[in-house]
Amino acid sequence: MTKVHDINAVEFLREIIPFNSLPEEVILEICDQLRIQEFPKDSLIFQQDGPPCEYLYMIRRGAVIKSVQRDGADVLFDFRTEGEVFGSASLVAGTGPAFSVRAYEDTVCYLLPKAAFDALMQNHVGFHEHFAIRVSRLSDRLKKAQSGIFSLPSGSDVLVLQEGRPLFGGVSAGELIKSKPVTCSPYHEATYVAKLMARHQIGAVVVVDLRNRPLGIVTKTDMTNKILAAEKTGAEPVRTIMSAPVIGVSPEEPAFNALLKMAGRGFHHVCVVVGEMLLGVISQHDLITLQGADPLAVINRIEAQDTLDGLVEPVQSLDALVEHLLEAGVEAKQVAGFISECNDRLTRRIIALSQEAMLEEGLGAVPGPYCWLALGSEGRKEQALRTDQDNAIIYADPEPGSQDRVQTYYLELGRRVVSGLERCGFPLCKGEIMASNPQWCCSETAWRTYFSKWINDASPEDLRKCTIFFDFRGLEGVTGLADGLRDFLHGQIEANRAFLRHLTTNALYNGPPLGFLRSLVVEKKGVHKNKLNLKMSGLVPVVDAVRVFALSRNIDATNTLKRLDLVRRSHLLSHNMAADVQEAFSFIMLLRMNRHLSQKKQDLAPDDYINPEELPKLQKRSLIEAFHVIRDLQGEMAARFPESL
């Protein structure tokens, strides 16, 4: 064992959690205390139940095997490779190791003496928290790794809400409350509430009951539209003009969640509640704090356009805004939700403009109830910037003799909307799963026939093609048609539970690209040589597996992380596994978003392929861990439906 005297150790520690969070001067001090030791292949580093460890081992090069003695035999249970550590549990507990460690190949380790380790544990909270509390929590490591994918550039024009904290990054809804909320009773007269607004110079008053539970909200716009414009006296009780129910968020929720809820409902205020009790109010103005990048302004500009040409510009501005949000620390799932909300608004606006144009051209009004269906990633609200279109139309069964006329109308509507989306930058679906295709623009009965066939008589290849339809969401029109189709879907699955076993086989079709000893399997040749596909190897396996669990319990949600939470609550997955899956999915989603934004800056068509060797070491290790989580999730699914294998 020799003392370390090279700059490589400094660079090494800068990339290892939790050393990478330590001050630079502390890292330099640690390097003065490090030792380096070589372990030949198959050599024993320490023995299960042997003396307590005297060092924290950090693998500089090579790999080790961890094993435990069971029934007189060594049972392998983990690998550790470059950049990973071992021995911390023995150091923290002061007891003999709970496992044996042997060099799998010629291995070089940095060794941090126990005294130096103890000093770091005592003087640095984050270091102590990692090894004493979170060392076994994979979800925490993956969550922390996400912060390194996007970082604030020097000279960034992103404003801060609090000193040293970027916009939305870690800012909760409760932190945006500026003052005690102004409230009134539902029985107060409108004129009294108007005076409250003037006295406090505010734009909204919350209507509460005797227990301070919010019942509704009244704004200046309500006063103008529902009192003055309606030529009322103002003596009316405020409950007759309030907007209800209110949108509620908890104080701990991220501020961006409040923005998404406002955008989703078209409201300008959200109530912060503890349980059912009102704590404060956040307005749209409170959330508009990005310099030159206002998320709600993009949505408002989309809503304000009355021509297709006018819709192109606000959609194009979305790229820069998404990058701002990611740099500001907004989580991938929230950014994906915001992108989907913008795309929803855009689609609804194109639908409205198309219907108006068809009416003006003499093609008539909508001939009956219909619903525009969002499918695939759009149906799950997990879209990247501008992914391929996946949409459809369901309409109520026409009167006898009118089928051709009705379908002709909706096909023309579908063609116009699909064309409009393409003009705004959304490529056509290569598989033609779009509302402009007669196959996917059909009546309620036809859709039920499709689902019945898929569930009761589909081949494995058919299932791989049709799973996109199991994530449908009613986007515009009579959403009750979509709800009825979902009820039919659940009923068919309940009548044929064997379908879940077939769906499980389909969900195992794509798996994480893991090789032996925590290595990654990449393309061996072709245009994507040395790369792997983040979508097909990482995101799709999670989406497919969680879908199986959700459908097995008749869960209506389509969003993968929402489904995952409901699956956890149904006790189909443990809390820890669900947390690990959530962070693995979010980590890969963030890598994918970063990839797409980087390619767009270079005027390249976005794809999902990355070379893992080009990632920073921390991100590569985290990607490997994320893939292991996905493999474990698939194992849980296969174990629940073993007949499918």
Please give the structural blueprint.
Elements: E1 2-3, H1 8-14, H2 24-33, E2 35-39, E3 44-46, E4 55-61, E5 63-70, E6 73-81, E7 85-86, H3 88-93, E8 100-103, E9 107-113, H4 114-123, H5 125-134, H6 138-146, E10 160-162, E11 165-166, E12 183-184, H7 190-200, E13 204-208, E14 214-219, H8 220-228, E15 248-249, H9 255-265, E16 269-274, E17 277-283, H10 284-287, H11 295-304, H12 308-316, H13 318-327, H14 332-360, E18 370-374, H15 376-380, E19 391-395, H16 403-423, E20 441-443, H17 444-456, H18 460-466, E21 473-477, H19 480-495, H20 498-507, E22 532-533, H21 534-552, H22 560-569, H23 575-601, E23 609-610, H24 617-640
Parallel strand pairs: 12-13, 15-16, 19-20
Antiparallel strand pairs: 1-2, 2-9, 3-8, 4-7, 4-9, 5-6, 5-8, 10-11, 13-14, 16-17, 18-19, 18-21, 22-23
Explain what you see.
By secondary structure, the protein is an alpha+beta fold. Helix 20 (498-507) runs antiparallel to helix 21. The model is unreliable at 151-169 and 289-293 (pLDDT under 50). It has a five-stranded antiparallel sheet.
Give the structure's gist in a few sentences.
The chain is an alpha+beta fold and 645 residues long. It starts with a strand and ends in a 5-residue tail after the last helix.
